[in-house]
Fold this sequence. Notes:
- This protein is about 20% helix and about 25% strand.
- It is α/β, with parallel strands linked by helices.
- The strands form 5 sheets. The chain has a 10-stranded mixed β-sheet with strand order 5-7-10-13-16-19-24-25-21-22, with no helix packed on it. Strands 6-9-12-15-18-23 form a 6-stranded parallel β-sheet. A 5-stranded parallel β-sheet has the order 8-11-14-17-20, with no helix packed on it.
- Helix 1 packs across helix 2, helix 1 (about 5-15) packs across helix 3 and helix 2 crosses helix 3.
- The model has no long low-confidence stretch (mean pLDDT about 95).
Amino acid sequence: MSKNELETIINQAWGKKEEINKNSEKKIIDAINQTINNLDSGSARVAEKINGDWVTHQYLKKAIMLSFRIYDMEVLSGPYSSWYDKSHLVKGKTAGWTKEDHVKAGFRMVPNSPVRKGSFIGKNVVLMPCFINIGAYIDEGTMMDTFSRAGSCCQIGKNCHISAGSGVGGVLEPAQALPTIIEDNVFLGAMSEVVEGVVVGEGSVISMGMCIGQSTKIVNRQTGDITYGKIAPYSVVVPGSIPDKKNPNAPSLSCAVVIKQVDEKTRSKTSINDLLRE
Length: 278
């Protein structure tokens, strides 16, 4: 089916989503499955930059949510535990892959790196023990470090470093909401969280322990400007606090502080290592 056909069928099915199940019309089941396969192969992605702006393809998120309606729960037994989840997700993206399949995909994946079916992993990506949820898109050359997380539908660009213990939040619903986006060449420090559809601009460096959501004040230290929801490209961001001007005795609230633009000194400390991607 073409993109337009898929989008039409998915949108129509979404209008009666409470009625969708594993016994629904074949064309609906086929459209949902093809859409998940397109996300898995990278031929479709939940959000993409068009004329400088990030645009959400709502029908893809709708297809993901509808897929939970058409599959039963299934047990997967392992050597030290068992798992119980929807049957199209419990076995993961790479279940049954041969060495040839891994070589063709071109990314490195260490043990205990769950990657959901319906997520895309680009070439030369390195997956340490991490978690990649359905709908996520991880572009070429990115490092997902130990215990990092890529939430549902998040978009992570080329040559990023998502440090140990950090998370890029998922935004599956509502369907029209922009997913969390990490643009190319971003360094996300250890134990940081970027959530709620925040966009981190290209080349930015986010300090260790940052938590940035849509309600987080982003303060430019040089200009004093306060923005929300988007980190400008090539920003260096550290944790800070901002007092309540109306009540000086009130506790200060946490914020993200843009202290400078990325320079050679910053980049030398945060650049990726090509040796890990060979």
